[in-house]
Write a structure and sequence with these properties.
Layout: H1 7-26, H2 40-50, H3 58-74, H4 83-101, H5 105-117, H6 119-122, H7 130-143, H8 155-174, H9 178-195, H10 198-207, H11 213-223, H12 225-241
Helix pairs in contact: 1-2, 1-11, 1-12, 2-4, 2-7, 2-9, 3-12, 4-5, 4-7, 7-8, 8-9
Protein backbone atom coordinates (compact mmCIF):
# COMPACT_ATOMS: atom_id res chain seq x y z
CA UNK A 1 0.00 0.00 0.00
CA UNK A 2 1.41 3.37 -1.04
CA UNK A 3 2.10 5.72 1.86
CA UNK A 4 0.22 9.03 1.65
CA UNK A 5 1.76 12.18 3.04
CA UNK A 6 -0.25 14.70 5.04
CA UNK A 7 -0.04 18.49 4.97
CA UNK A 8 1.39 18.43 8.51
CA UNK A 9 4.18 16.10 7.40
CA UNK A 10 4.94 18.31 4.41
CA UNK A 11 5.18 21.40 6.61
CA UNK A 12 7.33 19.50 9.12
CA UNK A 13 9.63 18.52 6.24
CA UNK A 14 9.77 22.16 5.18
CA UNK A 15 10.66 23.23 8.73
CA UNK A 16 13.48 20.66 8.90
CA UNK A 17 14.74 21.94 5.54
CA UNK A 18 14.85 25.61 6.52
CA UNK A 19 16.43 24.85 9.91
CA UNK A 20 19.30 23.09 8.15
CA UNK A 21 19.49 25.81 5.49
CA UNK A 22 19.61 28.66 7.99
CA UNK A 23 22.20 26.86 10.12
CA UNK A 24 24.35 26.88 7.00
CA UNK A 25 23.53 30.54 6.34
CA UNK A 26 24.53 31.78 9.80
CA UNK A 27 27.12 29.35 11.16
CA UNK A 28 28.66 27.16 8.44
CA UNK A 29 28.79 29.46 5.45
CA UNK A 30 31.56 27.47 3.74
CA UNK A 31 29.47 24.27 3.59
CA UNK A 32 27.07 24.52 0.65
CA UNK A 33 25.67 21.06 1.37
CA UNK A 34 23.67 22.63 4.18
CA UNK A 35 21.97 24.91 1.62
CA UNK A 36 20.72 22.22 -0.81
CA UNK A 37 17.31 21.66 0.81
CA UNK A 38 15.44 24.29 -1.20
CA UNK A 39 12.09 22.46 -1.37
CA UNK A 40 10.52 24.64 1.32
CA UNK A 41 9.63 27.31 -1.26
CA UNK A 42 7.23 24.79 -2.81
CA UNK A 43 5.91 23.81 0.64
CA UNK A 44 5.24 27.45 1.68
CA UNK A 45 3.83 29.06 -1.44
CA UNK A 46 1.56 26.42 -2.96
CA UNK A 47 -0.75 26.62 0.10
CA UNK A 48 -0.85 30.43 -0.34
CA UNK A 49 -2.48 29.89 -3.72
CA UNK A 50 -4.57 26.89 -2.73
CA UNK A 51 -6.03 28.71 0.28
CA UNK A 52 -6.19 32.03 -1.54
CA UNK A 53 -9.13 33.33 0.49
CA UNK A 54 -7.02 33.47 3.64
CA UNK A 55 -5.26 36.71 4.57
CA UNK A 56 -2.04 36.97 6.55
CA UNK A 57 -2.66 36.83 10.31
CA UNK A 58 -1.44 39.76 12.43
CA UNK A 59 1.19 37.44 13.90
CA UNK A 60 2.78 37.15 10.43
CA UNK A 61 3.01 40.95 10.25
CA UNK A 62 4.52 40.99 13.77
CA UNK A 63 7.04 38.33 12.78
CA UNK A 64 8.05 40.38 9.74
CA UNK A 65 8.52 43.48 11.90
CA UNK A 66 10.67 41.58 14.42
CA UNK A 67 12.90 40.21 11.69
CA UNK A 68 13.32 43.71 10.24
CA UNK A 69 14.35 45.00 13.69
CA UNK A 70 16.98 42.27 14.03
CA UNK A 71 18.34 43.19 10.59
CA UNK A 72 18.87 46.72 11.88
CA UNK A 73 20.51 45.45 15.07
CA UNK A 74 22.86 43.26 13.04
CA UNK A 75 23.79 46.23 10.90
CA UNK A 76 22.75 44.54 7.65
CA UNK A 77 20.47 45.73 4.87
CA UNK A 78 16.76 45.33 5.63
CA UNK A 79 16.21 44.51 1.96
CA UNK A 80 15.47 41.94 0.77
CA UNK A 81 12.63 41.41 3.21
CA UNK A 82 12.11 37.90 4.56
CA UNK A 83 9.84 35.33 2.95
CA UNK A 84 7.09 36.46 5.36
CA UNK A 85 6.76 39.65 3.30
CA UNK A 86 6.46 37.56 0.14
CA UNK A 87 3.74 35.44 1.76
CA UNK A 88 1.81 38.57 2.79
CA UNK A 89 2.05 40.11 -0.69
CA UNK A 90 1.19 36.81 -2.36
CA UNK A 91 -1.95 36.34 -0.27
CA UNK A 92 -3.11 39.87 -1.17
CA UNK A 93 -2.55 39.60 -4.92
CA UNK A 94 -2.98 35.93 -5.87
CA UNK A 95 -6.75 36.05 -6.49
CA UNK A 96 -6.89 39.23 -8.62
CA UNK A 97 -3.80 38.18 -10.59
CA UNK A 98 -5.16 34.72 -11.34
CA UNK A 99 -8.69 35.94 -12.13
CA UNK A 100 -7.15 38.20 -14.76
CA UNK A 101 -4.69 35.60 -16.06
CA UNK A 102 -7.22 32.81 -16.45
CA UNK A 103 -9.53 34.79 -18.78
CA UNK A 104 -7.62 33.66 -21.88
CA UNK A 105 -4.44 31.88 -22.98
CA UNK A 106 -3.01 35.22 -24.08
CA UNK A 107 -3.77 36.79 -20.71
CA UNK A 108 -2.11 33.89 -18.92
CA UNK A 109 1.05 33.99 -21.00
CA UNK A 110 1.39 37.78 -20.70
CA UNK A 111 0.76 37.74 -16.92
CA UNK A 112 3.26 34.97 -16.25
CA UNK A 113 5.73 36.53 -18.68
CA UNK A 114 5.61 39.78 -16.71
CA UNK A 115 6.03 37.93 -13.39
CA UNK A 116 8.97 36.01 -14.86
CA UNK A 117 10.63 39.22 -16.07
CA UNK A 118 10.21 40.72 -12.59
CA UNK A 119 11.84 37.83 -10.71
CA UNK A 120 15.38 39.20 -10.69
CA UNK A 121 14.54 42.81 -9.72
CA UNK A 122 11.92 41.72 -7.17
CA UNK A 123 14.27 39.36 -5.28
CA UNK A 124 16.22 42.48 -4.33
CA UNK A 125 13.12 43.64 -2.43
CA UNK A 126 11.89 40.38 -0.87
CA UNK A 127 12.90 36.72 -0.81
CA UNK A 128 11.73 34.79 -3.88
CA UNK A 129 10.14 37.95 -5.31
CA UNK A 130 7.46 37.36 -7.96
CA UNK A 131 8.53 33.73 -8.14
CA UNK A 132 6.62 33.23 -4.86
CA UNK A 133 3.48 34.44 -6.61
CA UNK A 134 4.14 32.09 -9.53
CA UNK A 135 4.51 29.10 -7.20
CA UNK A 136 1.29 30.16 -5.45
CA UNK A 137 -0.37 30.27 -8.88
CA UNK A 138 0.24 26.51 -9.12
CA UNK A 139 -1.65 26.05 -5.85
CA UNK A 140 -4.47 28.25 -7.16
CA UNK A 141 -4.74 26.14 -10.33
CA UNK A 142 -4.72 22.92 -8.30
CA UNK A 143 -7.56 24.23 -6.12
CA UNK A 144 -9.65 25.41 -9.11
CA UNK A 145 -8.91 22.49 -11.43
CA UNK A 146 -12.03 21.79 -13.49
CA UNK A 147 -13.27 25.37 -13.08
CA UNK A 148 -11.11 26.85 -15.84
CA UNK A 149 -10.52 25.95 -19.47
CA UNK A 150 -7.47 23.68 -19.57
CA UNK A 151 -6.77 24.95 -23.09
CA UNK A 152 -5.73 28.19 -21.39
CA UNK A 153 -3.08 26.50 -19.27
CA UNK A 154 -1.88 22.95 -18.73
CA UNK A 155 -1.25 22.66 -14.99
CA UNK A 156 1.69 20.26 -15.12
CA UNK A 157 3.44 22.12 -17.95
CA UNK A 158 3.11 25.43 -16.13
CA UNK A 159 4.19 23.90 -12.80
CA UNK A 160 7.41 22.62 -14.30
CA UNK A 161 8.03 25.90 -16.06
CA UNK A 162 7.92 27.50 -12.59
CA UNK A 163 10.15 24.75 -11.17
CA UNK A 164 12.73 25.45 -13.90
CA UNK A 165 12.60 29.19 -13.09
CA UNK A 166 13.11 28.36 -9.43
CA UNK A 167 16.05 26.05 -10.14
CA UNK A 168 17.69 28.69 -12.36
CA UNK A 169 17.33 31.34 -9.63
CA UNK A 170 18.65 28.89 -7.03
CA UNK A 171 21.71 28.01 -9.08
CA UNK A 172 22.34 31.67 -9.92
CA UNK A 173 22.26 32.46 -6.19
CA UNK A 174 24.30 29.57 -4.77
CA UNK A 175 26.49 28.19 -7.58
CA UNK A 176 26.09 24.59 -6.43
CA UNK A 177 28.36 21.92 -7.90
CA UNK A 178 26.74 19.31 -10.15
CA UNK A 179 26.07 16.79 -7.36
CA UNK A 180 24.59 19.40 -5.04
CA UNK A 181 22.41 20.75 -7.83
CA UNK A 182 21.10 17.24 -8.56
CA UNK A 183 19.99 17.01 -4.90
CA UNK A 184 18.28 20.41 -5.19
CA UNK A 185 16.56 19.41 -8.43
CA UNK A 186 15.45 15.96 -7.23
CA UNK A 187 14.03 17.18 -3.90
CA UNK A 188 12.24 20.11 -5.56
CA UNK A 189 10.64 17.86 -8.19
CA UNK A 190 9.53 15.33 -5.55
CA UNK A 191 7.96 18.12 -3.49
CA UNK A 192 6.19 19.42 -6.59
CA UNK A 193 4.85 15.98 -7.51
CA UNK A 194 3.45 15.47 -4.01
CA UNK A 195 1.62 18.79 -4.18
CA UNK A 196 -0.27 17.98 -7.39
CA UNK A 197 -2.60 16.01 -5.11
CA UNK A 198 -2.74 18.69 -2.41
CA UNK A 199 -6.41 18.05 -1.65
CA UNK A 200 -5.55 14.47 -0.73
CA UNK A 201 -2.77 15.71 1.56
CA UNK A 202 -5.34 17.82 3.40
CA UNK A 203 -7.82 14.94 3.66
CA UNK A 204 -5.12 12.61 5.00
CA UNK A 205 -4.21 15.22 7.61
CA UNK A 206 -7.83 15.57 8.71
CA UNK A 207 -8.58 11.86 9.02
CA UNK A 208 -5.28 10.57 10.39
CA UNK A 209 -4.93 10.66 14.17
CA UNK A 210 -1.34 10.85 15.43
CA UNK A 211 -0.44 7.68 17.33
CA UNK A 212 3.29 7.97 18.01
CA UNK A 213 5.59 10.82 19.01
CA UNK A 214 6.83 11.31 15.45
CA UNK A 215 3.36 11.84 13.99
CA UNK A 216 2.38 14.01 16.97
CA UNK A 217 5.50 16.13 16.49
CA UNK A 218 4.76 16.52 12.77
CA UNK A 219 1.21 17.58 13.57
CA UNK A 220 2.40 20.19 16.06
CA UNK A 221 5.19 21.47 13.82
CA UNK A 222 2.81 21.63 10.86
CA UNK A 223 0.47 23.94 12.75
CA UNK A 224 3.29 26.09 14.18
CA UNK A 225 5.57 26.28 11.14
CA UNK A 226 5.47 30.06 10.60
CA UNK A 227 5.99 30.66 14.31
CA UNK A 228 8.97 28.30 14.28
CA UNK A 229 10.32 30.17 11.25
CA UNK A 230 10.27 33.50 13.09
CA UNK A 231 11.49 32.22 16.47
CA UNK A 232 14.39 30.19 15.10
CA UNK A 233 15.58 33.14 12.98
CA UNK A 234 15.42 35.45 15.98
CA UNK A 235 17.47 32.94 18.01
CA UNK A 236 19.98 32.40 15.18
CA UNK A 237 20.38 36.14 14.68
CA UNK A 238 20.81 36.76 18.42
CA UNK A 239 23.50 34.06 18.52
CA UNK A 240 25.12 35.68 15.46
CA UNK A 241 25.08 39.12 17.09
CA UNK A 242 26.54 37.80 20.34
Amino acid sequence: MRYRFTTSEMFALGVAAFLIDHAGLYFWTDNLWLRVFRLFAIVWFIPCGYNSGWRAHWKVWLGLALLMVTDVLMGVEVMPLSALATIIITRIFIDPVMELAIKSRGNFMITMGILTALIMPSVLVMEYGTLGLMIAAIGWLIRHKGQYDEKIVDLRTFAYYVVVCYLILTQYTFHFNSTQFMVVMFSTVVAMELHFDYRQLILEDLKRRPKDWVSKACKWIGHKSLGIYVVHLLIFRLMFIL
